Amino acid sequence: MKVPYAWLREYVDVEVTAQKLGEALTLVGLALEGLEGEGDAAVLDLDVTTNRVDCMNVYGVAREVAVIYGLPLKPLALGFAERGSPAGEALDVVIEAPDLCPRFCARVFDVALGPSPEWLRKRLEAVGVRPISNLVDLTNYVMMEMGQPTHAFDLGKIPKGRLKVRWARAGERVTTLDGAERILAGKVPVGVVAGPESPLALAGIMGGASSEVSDATRVVALEAAAWEPRAIRRGARALGMHTEASHRFERGADPEGPPLALNRLAHLLEKTGAGTCRPGLIERHPAPTARTRLVLRSTRLEAVLGTTVPTARVGPILEGLGFSVGRWASGQAEIVVPTWRGDVSREVDLVEEVGRHHGLGRVDATLPPSAHPQGLTDSQRRGRLIRDTLCAAGFTEVINYAFGPAVTAGMDVGPAVVLKNPLAEDQAGLRRSLLPGLLANLGTNLRQGRKDIAIFEMGRVFAPGGDLPVEERRLALLLAGEGRAAHWSERVRPADVFDVKGLLELLFRRLGLGTADLASGGGLPSYLHPGRSAVVRLNGDVVGSYGALHPETRAAHDLRDDVLVAELGLEALQERPAPPVRMEALDRFPAVSRDLSILSDVRQSSAALLALIREAAGASLRAVALVDRYDRPPVPPGKLSLTVSLRFQDRSRTLTGEEVQAAVEGVVRALRAAGAEIRGE
Amino acid sequence: MKLLGQFGPAERGQAGQLLNELKQEVERGLEQVKWWFEGKQSHEALDGPTEDLSLPGRLPRLGRVHPLSAVREDIEDIFVSMGYLVYEGREVEDDYHCFEALNMPADHPARDMQDTFYVAGGEGVVLRTHTSSAQIRYMLDNPHPPRVRIICPGRVFRRDDDITHSPMFQQIEGLVVGPGIHLGHLKGTIQAFLHAIFGEHFPVRFRPSFFPYTEPSVEADLGCVVCGGKGCRVCKGTGWLEILGSGMVHPAVFEAVNERRGRKVYDPEEVTGFAFGLGIERVAMMRHGIDDIRLFYGNDLRFLEQFAR
Fold first, then answer.
1. pTM for this entry
2. In which band, very low, low, confident or very high, does the pLDDT at A606 lie, cut at 50, 70 and 90?
């Protein structure tokens, strides 16, 4: 909000520079956002928080200034002379909806419309209001000065001079001052100020064109009312309107403001020669607001602020802000809240008032007493371990929006939770999988000319659920281009599914997870290549899948080359506690190694072959590893040449050559029985 | 030496001594021969091929942690060292946790401060606009009431999209509740945190503000990291950067939680607390000189690969 320094100084004799004043206001909660001009021409731009409607005007800010510097706040000039026939003869008001309007005040003026004097125009321009005519300008001036919006009706255009304050009836229309025709038929009730028949103005929001003042206007009715904040807020929202008036009314303007604002207007109209006031205030006050009375305890002040504020200091602060402070007895006093402070409704609000003017800087900064050390949970540490492992393995972390297109081409991941009011159509669905996001990132980076892309994301996915959607934390990764970093010493190799599989194996080992099965195909998502993908099973449970993207999915995204992906539930990786490792005794007796070359059918899975070997070799076999796999000539078509290395070792003695030989022969027999050929030992 | 026994006692000593000397002489000679051979071998090994170490090393592929994750972990570590538990709430929330329990009933003007995404089909189901909703979830589930010391990092959502606003961004909320917690503790904690993350030489300023769920509400400003407080474009000439919102927990928040729990778990007369919240992007932007928040979610490797971790 813009506050001209000279205008402030009409109400408080502050002597500091505008800059200093702005800094002081910042420290009581009215943050200086900008400062234009110097000396008396300076205009402060203050950030007034939404609760402080009392400071959305010059006089309210002046009150804060007066308290900061301990200066008196000068009263507003309200004096004027009444002339002519009683106002009540020309205008009658009925409030039919006290739940909309607890108080309606009006005065009738004989006016001579014309341009405003220069000082008035300048002031309005300084606060960002366009001058129009003396009457309209003065209503704006009073709103900017004391926060009460008022509205001028051309009395000649009020049918029969009678106003009704009521809720709009379905289908009623009104053309507002901005020229728009508003239809008041919606589900949300909208308040109006109406003539005997149709609405003339939107209550507390904007006046209507049919009773607008013009150069020909000779008599006006000036309205100043108190409106129920929620009614104004709902109505303005329903109509999609937001005005200076509605902004103040929906935050709760001072219920005592209306008669004062009319007096101030009468004073200023007289002073500027723009009009004279007819005798009598027309006032309807069906629902007077009770004054808020609170008890402030000095113990509470200290408990919240952490410092003692002497009652001798509390009194002047609160009184300066317009509160009346009763006598202190047993450490407490009754406080009556001023009508313009609707935001103060409980003791703690008073604590804030005292705290901000006593000064937050006077509260000593200290740390709370130490608490139980808690640390990160196992699960949180494992989450970090996953991130660090993937980064160390060459994958870069990305973070995508939780929303995206409700449907992704070539990726059926099930129905998405949909947003009612997305920013864009392609951000309408909450993601059910992290992979569409990673595919989009692949596209972004391919367009930049990147070829080798290794990225991962850890985040939540959403599925339709009961009252709230089901949230699940996931890990997904994507690999395209080369399998590893290029180097001058070797040829590059395109990434393949074993790069991803190896990475998952690395991850599971670092996490100390049990045996993972990364070889079975049942239940693969449709976007994965059925012959080069597998589900991931951890201790029997399916926790995700990995593999090459299905060619159709690739085609849907214009991707020529292979793309490898994996997606896993993080819960399964993070929440399974790894039992502490139990040390195994180190071997004291030598190991014997034997290699076997096997010719087997290509359809034979290597895992099954190794299992067969393990079983046939007996207890002395300590390890078996596949060291070579070859399927080109001279290996006959349909066959595979595999070389496995067997390591025999016993914990309690040295194995004899005969024992090892017997075990190897057992393996050879079993392999032959399974249809494999042994090509050499 | 085997023949020594054939000598008489007198000659035996003399012969033995001679023999010993001879033995040592031979051993010395052998040692020299061995040394010469080894030296020759190692010379031959050194004559082999050498490497041009100005060539690039075989660097494993290098992945990076997202700068927001790095900042988030740094912040978590600071608070964990002060005894805080890291707690994450939900991202899709109901109106109760996101607004109502935080002293923002329907039609509250403060709801205007946050433009909310709504989920279709659900009544009052929203994408959380702030991590403050996690405060409520934790207080309702807290195994050790009324004592609380948590930070809640996570993603939040608001309908805004420009150079300084992203429709999704990340916050960290903090909540400390217990007997005797006061504004001085809030100040001390926030000051300690800001000094830990930005450096001790930046001044911290506290000024009154407004949030519906805290009273008094306090905004913390950090001396401008760009101009050092002299005033520049970044700090709009004020010398200060708004960094963090905070305040003493509003009694209405405790009352809302008590009401749902069905008993006075957090008696506002017995316990007090403070809460704070800050944007992770803002810290990352200040730390790395990033001027467009949208870069964080563009996932362009040219951006992500600039960061060291």
1. 0.89
2. confident
Domain ranges of chain A: 2-69, 87-284, 293-362, 378-574, 592-680
Q: Hey, how many other C-beta atoms are within 10 angstroms of the C-beta on B219?
A: 24
DSSP B165: B
CATH code linked to domain A2-69: 3.30.56.10
Backbone angles phi, psi at A494, to 5 degrees: -65, 145
* pLDDT over threshold 70, residue A630: yes
Decide if A270 contacts A277 (C-beta within 8 A): yes
Model confidence at B48: pLDDT above 80: no
Q: Is the pLDDT of residue A514 over 80?
A: no
Q: What is the pLDDT of residue A681?
A: 58
The mean per-residue pLDDT over the stretch A61-65 comes to: 98
Query: Per-domain residue ranges for chain B?
Result: 67-304
- 3-class secondary-structure state, position B243: strand
Mind listing the pLDDT tens digit for each residue in B161-205?
A: 888 889 999 999 999 999 999 999 999 999 999 999 999 999 999
State the residue for tokens 């510097």: A69
C-beta atoms of A363 and B183 within 8 A: yes
pLDDT tens by residue, B263-290: 999 999 999 999 999 999 999 999 999 9
Among B268, B285, B292, B243, residue whose Cα is nearest residue B67: B285
Give the model's pLDDT for residue A372. Answer: 79
**Nearest Cα to A399, choosing from A411, A387, A417?**
A387
Asked if A398 lies within 8 A of B66 by C-beta distance, the reply is yes
- The third-level CATH classification (topology) of the domain covering A293-362 is Phenylalanyl-tRNA Synthetase; Chain B, domain 1 (3.30.56)
A368 touches B: beta carbon within 8 Å: yes
State both tokens at B59. 């660097």
Q: Is the pLDDT of residue A482 over 90?
A: no
Give pLDDT, residue B229: 84
Task: Report whether A411 contacts A433 (CB < 8 A).
Answer: yes
B67-304 is classed CATH 3.40.640.10: no
With an 8 Å Cβ cutoff, are A355 and B305 in contact? no
- Pick among 2.30.30.230, 1.10.4160.10, 3.30.1360.170, 3.50.40.10: CATH of A87-284: 3.50.40.10
Is A371's CB within 8 Å of B118's CB? Answer: no
| ipTM tops 0.85 | yes
Euclidean distance between CA atoms A95 and B242, whole angstroms: 47
Q: Do domains A2-69 and A293-362 have the same CATH topology?
A: yes
Question: Which residue, among A114, A388, A342, A76, has the nearest Cα to A229 in the 3D structure?
Answer: A342
CATH topology (fold) of A378-574: BirA Bifunctional Protein; domain 2 (3.30.930)
Question: For A511, which DSSP code?
Answer: T
A116: tokens are 């405003």
AA letter at A656: T
Surface of B (8-67) touching A: CB under 8 A: 55-56, 58-66
CB A478 within 8 A of CB A435: yes
User: CA A67, A72, A78: angle at the middle one, nearest 5?
Assistant: 115
pLDDT digits (tens, 9 = 90+) for B88-145: 999 999 999 999 999 998 877 667 666 899 999 888 899 999 999 999 999 999 988 9
